[in-house]
Write a structure and sequence with these properties.
disordered N terminus, mainly alpha, Tetracycline Repressor, domain 2, single chain, 220 residues, 10 helices
């Protein structure tokens, strides 16, 4: 078989692969809508197939199980958040931090069930959900470190200070989506100011990591 024949033979497979990727992405998009405010246990595979207007076997074909489907949905949805957090390097530090926190709160607000699953670690000790959560944490820590210190390879004390702040954000955000008494703008500003406190605490314990000027102004 010559090269032209090989290419012609490969084209149907390539088209099939493209259709499979598109179909899988479509199922994930449907699942994101279904699970946005509904817990994992509240939807059966029959419910999902019926609401998605697909055969149940199609979901098993692409994801093997309900749990596989749910994990793919969570990974896809938090990927948007992580990508957004890592972007905007050209923005001033304060603007970038505010945009990242606002995006984080929007995600939690519009994907409440998935957010609760990620932050709580799933049912029992779910290593795959924990890995997703840890990836989000590291992305947020890297974003803040890059903005505050101009690099992501920071010392253990500075990293722990930022991780502690991110963990407090997770708990506060869980409470906020359960009791949304504060507007998102107010919640965002509150988290920005608590970050300023964390950055000043890091500087006090390790002067080689000075807090950015905006964080010092917050102190006054």
């Amino acid at each position: 078989m010559n090269i032209s024949d090989q290419r012609a033979a490969a084209r149907p497979r390539a088209r099939g692969t493209e259709r499979s990727v598109a179909r899988r992405a479509e199922l994930i998009a449907i699942g994101r809508r279904l699970f946005a405010d509904t817990s994992y246990d509240a939807l059966s595979m029959d419910d999902i197939a019926r609401q998605a207007h697909v055969a149940k076997g199609l979901i098993y074909y692409y994801f093997q199980s309900k749990r596989g489907y749910y994990l793919a949905i969570i990974q896809d949805s938090v990927a948007d958040l992580v990508t957004f957090a890592a972007s905007g390097l050209q923005l001033p530090q304060v603007d970038r931090v505010q945009r990242t926190i606002d995006s984080y709160l929007r995600y939690a607000e519009h994907n409440q069930a998935a957010y609760r699953t990620v932050v709580s670690g799933g049912v029992g000790f779910d290593t795959e959900v924990h890995a997703i959560r840890d990836g989000v944490r590291e992305a947020i820590v890297a974003t803040i470190a890059e903005g505050a210190y101009g690099r992501t390879d920071i010392a253990p004390l500075a990293r722990m200070g930022l991780v502690s702040w991110v963990c407090s954000v997770e708990g506060a955000t869980l409470d906020w989506i359960d009791r949304p008494e504060l507007p998102r703008d107010t919640m965002r500003e509150l988290l920005v100011k608590t970050l300023g406190g964390a950055l000043r605490a890091i500087e006090e314990l390790d002067p080689s990591y000075p807090a950015p000027e905006p964080a010092r102004r917050d102190e006054g």
